């Protein structure tokens, strides 16, 4: 079994730090078709009032979903994932990129073993995903 399926309601799960670089944003833009220049062009991002180039919200959410899938030990176990985007992740033009801290807490365990998991994602000490919740079913 996995750490997630060994956990009870109220248990905090192991955290993870992920790094997002400009190269990640370009790769995601190509894969997703979201070529909006705010995700790769500093000048454009600043012109529209952003603090710099920002990560795609869906990319950040996908990193959180992959984190939950890894905790479950099986990506197909994640049967639902919802979230809101609350703040942007500003990605500097350097090799270090931006660090996002991911955390999770089991909030409910159903009779069939399905876990409801509250997920947090923070950048610079502030949440970037709001109301992020995953439903994970054992397979």
Task: Note down, in words, how this protein is organized.
The protein has 139 residues and is an alpha+beta fold. The longest helix has 16 residues, at 57-72. Helices cover 27% and strands 35% of the residues. Strands 1, 2, 3, 4, 5 and 6 form a 6-stranded antiparallel sheet that branches. The protein has one domain (3-20, 57-136): Hotdog Thioesterase (Thiol Ester Dehydrase, Chain A). The protein contains 4 helices and 6 strands.
Number of helices: 4
CATH topology: Thiol Ester Dehydrase, Chain A
* Largest sheet geometry: 6 strands, antiparallel
| Rounded radius of gyration (Å) | 16 Å
Q: Please identify, by name, the CATH architecture.
A: Roll
* Poorly predicted spans: none
What is the average per-residue confidence, as pLDDT, rounded to a whole number?
96
Q: Work out the strand percent.
A: 25-35%
- Oligomeric status of the shown chains? single chain
Number of strands: 6
Question: Between the first and last Cα atoms, what is the distance in angstroms?
Answer: 10 Å
Structural domain count: 1
The gross shape turns out to be elongated
- CATH homologous superfamily? Hotdog Thioesterase
The chain-level structural class is alpha+beta
Q: Which H/E pattern describes the elements?
A: HEHHHEEEEE
Helix content: 25-40%
CATH class descriptor: Alpha Beta
Domain MaoC-like: 9-120
Family: Belongs to the enoyl-CoA hydratase/isomerase family.
Pfam family, one: MaoC_dehydratas
Protein name: MaoC/PaaZ C-terminal domain-containing protein
């Amino acid at each position: 079994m996995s750490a997630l399926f060994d956990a009870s309601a109220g248990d905090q799960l192991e955290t993870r730090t992920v790094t997002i670089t400009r190269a990640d944003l370009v790769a995601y833009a190509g894969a997703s078709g979201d070529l909006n220049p705010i995700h790769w062009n500093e000048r454009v991002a600043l012109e529209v009032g952003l603090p710099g180039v920002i990560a795609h919200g869906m990319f950040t959410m996908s990193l959180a979903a992959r984190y939950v899938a890894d905790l479950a030990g099986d990506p197909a176990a994640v049967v639902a994932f919802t979230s809101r985007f609350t703040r942007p992740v500003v990605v500097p033009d350097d090799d270090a990129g931006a660090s996002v801290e991911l955390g999770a807490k089991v909030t409910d365990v159903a009779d069939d073993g399905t876990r409801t998991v509250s997920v947090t994602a923070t950048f610079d000490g502030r949440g970037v995903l709001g109301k992020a919740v995953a439903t994970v079913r054992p397979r």
